[in-house]
Amino acid sequence: MIDWTNANYLPWLIPVPPLLAFGLIFLITNRSWWLTVATAITATVTSWVLALAVVLRSVGAPVLGLAAPEHFGANAFGSSTPWLNLGTEQFSLGVAVDPLTVVMLFMVPLAISMIMIYSIGYMAHDPRKERFLGYMTLFAGAMLTLVVADNLLLLFIGWEVMGFCSYSLIGFWFEKESAYKAGVKAFMTTRVADVFLLLGIAYLFAEAGTLNFRDIFFNEAFLEKLAQTPALLLGGGLSAAGLIGVFIVIGTIGKSAQFPLHVWLPDAMEGPTPVSAMIHAAAMVSAGVYLVVRMYPLLEAGADPHHGIYSAPLLLMAYVGAFTALFAAIIAVAQNDVKRVLAYSTISQLGFMIAALGIGAYIAAAFHLITHGIFKALLFMSSGSVIHAMEHGEHHAHEHGHHPHNTFESDKPFDPQDMRNMGGLRGRIPATFWSFLAGGMALAGFPLITAGFWSKDEILAEAWTLGLGGEGFGPAIFVFILLVLAAFLTAFYTTRQLAMTFAGEPRSEAAAQAGLGGPRSMVSVLMQGPLLVLAVFAVIAGFVGVHPDFPLFGAIFSPSGNPFHEFVGGTLPHHPPTLAFNLIPVLFSFVVALGGIYLGYLVYWRKPLAAGQVDPTQAALDRISPAIYAAMRNKFYVDELYDAVFVKPAYWFSETVVSRVLDRGLIDGVLHFIARAATVIGETFKRFNRVVIDGVGDGIPQGIGAFGRWFRAIQSGNIQQYLLMVALSVIVIGIVVFWNLVR
Amino acid sequence: MNSPFPVLSIITLTPVVAALLILLLPRTAKQEARLIAAAATGFSLLLSLFVFFNYNVDFANAATTPEQMFQFQESTPWVEALGISYHLGVDGVSVPMVLLTGLASFAGVLISWGIDDRPREFMAFFLLLVAGVYGVFVAMDLFVLFFFYELAIFPMYLLIATWGWKDLREYASMKLTLYILIGSVIALVGVIAMYFVAGDATGTYSFDITHMMTVAAMPNSPFDAQVLGIDGLTFARLWFPFIFIGFGVLAGLFPFHNWSPDGHVAAPTAVSMIHAGVLMKLGAYSALRVGVQLLPEGAQVHLPWIVFLALINVVYGAFIAMRQRDFKYVIGFSSVSHMGLVSLGWATMNMYGMTGAGLQMFSHGAMTALFFSCVGMVYDRAHTRDIPSLGGFSKKMPWVAFAFIIGGLVSMGMPGLSGFVAEFPIFMGLWDAGPTIALNVGAWSLNNYYGVIAIVGVLGIVVTAAYVLRVVQQVFFGQFNEERYGDVGDVTVLDKAALVMLMAALIILGIWPGIMAPMIESGVRPIAQLLLGGA
User: Fold this and answer.
1) A580 DSSP assignment
2) How many CA atoms lie within 13 A of A57 on its CB side?
3) Which of B432, B459, B511, B515 has the most A C-beta neighbours within 10 Å, making it the best mutation to test the interface with A?
4) Is the pTM of this model over 0.90?
5) For A620-635, how does the pLDDT look when each residue is reduced to its tens digit (9 = 90+)?
6) ipTM score
7) B370-393 burial: b if 16+ Cβ within 10 Å, else e
8) Does B415 touch chain A (CB under 8 A)?
9) Does B469 touch chain A (CB under 8 A)?
10) Cβ contact B462–A188 (<8 Å)
11) Residue B383 has what pLDDT?
């Protein structure tokens, strides 16, 4: 019997309320907006409260009369139930809470709850808003399932359900073709990666006989063996652990939108903004990084990045992550859509995490995952608030007889998301401005007072220590250089975005009229309240992970060791080493963040863009070659390349080669040939039958008849003819007789 | 283990009796004919549920002799001189198939309610078809198996040729009948050879499957004896390809699959449902039951290359489906693709893969029946299946759109639905089989290639997602043509009932695979043990 007072069952309950709400909304409440809202909010907040209870219990606060266990990572609490038997093996589905889960349970439900509240305001006027909240609750339930899963299979279930939700939500406004296509693109791109993940899971299960995280990670003999078994295929010295790891990393590359599978994420901006916040912060993309963080002991099997020994999956992560971080940051500089800038910044920041994990900076990656989740949710919701205000302004301008038009390409319809149409919004929506500023500074890594600084600094510090600053390992050097450049660009484009949106004078009618309906309107409260909550966390969340030797701050926040490091490190079988404090990477962090912000301030804030003015960055780059900025604007033509290399050939292949030539041509051709040959043979047989067989069969009676007819001619009644016959007969007989006599 | 009453006979013969009853009705009794058909298929469905829930897995797992491996057995001598007996029974592989037949046939009758052109004859032939299908799954005598196998094909021909799509029905019905008949005749020749070889060796001439299994398991089995005086060529090795591929034709095995999309498209909706949903499983099931189970030594030699045909099925079918303009052809080729997964599962020759294949047979059956019913409902109302000219139908028929999306998610292996619990073990089986299976052709040998097959196979899943989403987008979402389809209405209550029934099967199996997996496992375990060489 299930004892519900047992804390081991608590994690099961966390994903249940949103999943239940999903069912309720779709089956029952979908005709009433307020019932739907009540259901969705109750469910997410309940999950949040349950998650908080788990978090507090786990960090030692006395909740429900429970105390934190010893060596929490190995002694995670949870339970499981058998699900599918296969041969001698048994799949169990279960949940478990270990330190990594705890920090995720801190970030995810918080962000989800805020996004849900925000959605109510954002979607209030949409005709299908009930369905929207339904999908959102399913999304939330899937993400929470993924977080509490104690095995790869349940994690994968949550992962895939999220993939489906993202498809439905990105394409939520499916009447718009671009939106639907973006949904399909997101689904298909991640799907390609997912099937590799599925293969990896199948392979792992075939080797391990279990998919339970702790059973695999705490079984060192098995990991050792797996790292020494050569992979089933692809040879080249790859071990079984390496191949499984590579498959898993490919799954993450798709889900977390890393190069070369990053293309779906910017297009996903077609979805309503709360979806973007959900996908880019709380759920989807975080899930990808969470997977590799979760699987780290397996990815690291047989390697030791702290001593310069890398495994294939680690190297893959280091190179792909670092490259993506810089690549996406460069593209972000040239984007004008307020959400697209954030989309590329997400890709770039995820690259930071994955690169960090690749060089063994496990804690730093997990730390950045948490802080990024918070400040990116904040940024997206702020940008949604900006867009909403702009649409409001556009509407308002219309009412007053003005027809807002773009400050550029004026032939196209007005685009409320284009930053070139904005400007001066600071005065119109101040609460949004301050929260956007808090999020933006966290993203830029503004030193000391933002969460983003502390987590990014930790990544750079580890990359420095393992690379240039001492150990000199190649991948760490590579990662450090690329990430420093990316961090600089991040600070630059974030400042650019803030300046173009909020600084200066309004560049369009809509911007001049922008607003959320006054500070006391319901929409305004629902949409800006969550921003303020998250803004607070975007500032303070970093203080849990300060290096103990950091001047001043270390003494205040980490008197007895780095709390985040100590806590999350407990997830692994062996606590990761604490690196000595080093001032040089901190200086780098200071310089790139402040330098980027200052440069952005110089170019965009001090002298705000005028309507129709060419972007100063573009002007500067065009002096070298116009191709550079064009390439950046067009995302280095990756989409066009894929279309030419994969999509068109796949269609051509299936249509021409497979369908027409092979199937209808060759196979049916052979068949039809056989059929035709059979017809010809049949025809031949028919003729043969008629001529030869019928000829014989019919010939005999016909011959007799013909003979009769001929013979009948003898009896003609003509005397002379009879006499002639007689005479002839006599002659013939005579000859015969004579002949015989002669012989 | 015998049943207290001849439940399998009742399941199989109820449709036959109903068909005769219907033919006795006057020509005008259309509604009565439908009611009788619904009652008969519903009754068989209930009994198949009874069999499903009363099948004893523990008993099957403890079985040591062939007789104990089958349950609900009933046996009467039929033609004693030839060793033919009316012997029925089910094991863990066939029980889900019986249930599937029940589901698909009942759903098929429900959605055929609107057929107004000679519904009496339609229902009678449909019931005969259903009886044939049931018969194959419960047959334990090879003669009885062939008897029902052919019984299923004959009404199929008439149903397609008479009630099918005018443009294609004559061509398709002929193509289908010829393909399947030729395949089954080839298999029949093999079975007769087995009959004589087994009879010569033991002195007992019998078509009984348990007898054949006993013979196959004998030391120095006559099936393993050398034939034709060629070194290394045994009876099993010679005949296995004929039997497996002969039945494989009906499972849509490449390159003998082309009857199936044409047949599906030409057939009326209910017949497509039975056809793709159940009939193709007859082929896969018989290939396993007669080919793999009775000639395991041949399977070990030949499946390592037949796996390539199955792989081609998976990828090739999916690619073709992606570029079809005709809604029904998309689903037709998707069936070719998914049946390839079943053959892949058999070819792993291990527990994982074969259990997965068993689950896939059920899952695909219910899924594709669901798909075809959705297609039929759209076609009946829009009068076209041309994908680009449809669009926005989710507004007019939300149930159908929802059902189609559920089916689509199943087909792309979404966890939480039955497709995933079927496909995942198949891929796991492929990995697991990797190191143990090798393909030897003369001195040349190929090792460790099952992993590559798994990798290429998952491509099929990716492409599946592409064509499913394409159809969903273009048919159910997108722009609705108010002018052309303004009078299109929603589906009937019976249609919805059929959709719900099939969806329920897919969802229940997806969330709780434990309801079926152990049963299938108990059925494939003895077969897997044969393939591993005894144990």
Assistant:
1) P
2) 21
3) B432
4) no
5) 777 877 777 777 777 7
6) 0.80
7) bbbbbbbbbbebbeebebeebbbb
8) yes
9) yes
10) yes
11) 81
